[in-house]
Amino acid sequence: MKIVVHLKNLSSLTVGNSSRLTRVDIGFNDMGIPGSSIKGSMRTAISWAIREGLSNFTSCGEIRPEKIEEAHKQKGVCDVCKLFGYPGHEGILRVSSIKVDKKETLTRVSINDSTNTAKEEALFKQEVVPPDSEFTFEIDLNTKDCKMLELTLLSLYFLRLWRLGRGAMIDLKVENIKEYPKDCPSETEEEIKKIMKELGEWLWQ
């Protein structure tokens, strides 16, 4: 299955680059917005939603490989890891990267976390995508499992309440699903239709 998704950043968006020297202190990633960054944010968002009470799906909620392995031994591989992968297993979801052409440079000031005030002589330059930029990416879901499709859509739904890159607020809209499965259980199909209706429009108008 392939899912076409539109993304719009509501605040300045930065996805940090590698350690190469740039004309700014925090340059934008050479790859644009890597699919792995979007995938990681989707995973974090849906794991948070399950932890907060979203039923019907499981998440081990672990980050460290040894903790993931231990959790899976006790309760079996969780739904989130089946979808997004875990150490030694790639998962069944792939996300395409986004090419970024339009960027601008902002001058920011570092904040002291303990006092919540600006640090003296701590200005830095950051390369960002300006707000209200729109992009399109594609999700490749290598399964016909309707439950995994529902979980994927829910991860996009909750990503709209989460952040991408270095704390940017975003909005998402799903255009369509290619190769939609035709044998979903009626209850699951109804849930998918409800989520798709929500994802059919921008949330933050």
UniProtKB/TrEMBL annotation:
InterPro entries xref list: CRISPR_Csm3_endoribonuclease (IPR052216), RAMP_III_fam (IPR005537)
The organism's taxonomic lineage, starting at the top: Archaea, Thermoproteota, Thermoprotei, Sulfolobales, Sulfolobaceae
Native species: Candidatus Aramenus sulfurataquae
Protein's name in the database: CRISPR type III-associated protein domain-containing protein
GO BP terms in the entry: defense response to virus
Residues of the CRISPR type III-associated protein domain: 10-167
Keywords: Antiviral defense
Annotated TM spans: none
